[in-house]
Specification:
Blueprint: E1 5-8, E2 11-15, H1 16-21, H2 26-33, E3 38-40, E4 51-55, H3 56-63, H4 66-76, H5 79-82
Length: about 90
């Protein structure tokens, strides 16, 4: 899956839009990642609000965690939905 990525200060970042493409919700971002690692000017619309960027390493580490998998499964209607359980 392609994600929106930015490269600044020799590190790779994922924007909030990129996180959403990866299956993140606003609540998961707030709970697992907290504050963004960097704020940047939107390269497409300079007058737009700053883009919140999260380091790719932190995002990938959080995605390997159990809490992300539980939250992601609920959102996508994974195994719990298949059994008719409420998320």
């Amino acid at each position: 899956m392609r994600t929106v990525r930015f490269a600044e200060d020799e590190r790779r970042y994922v924007s909030l839009a990129g996180l959403r493409l990866r299956g993140w919700t606003g609540a998961l971002v707030h709970r697992l990642l907290g504050s963004p690692d960097r704020l940047s000017v939107d390269p497409r619309v300079r007058a737009a609000p700053q883009v919140r960027l999260y380091r790719v390493e932190r995002v990938e580490a959080a995605e390997r965690g159990e809490e992300f998998r539980r939250g992601h499964t609920r959102r996508t209607g994974g195994p719990a939905a298949d059994r008719g359980e409420r998320p």
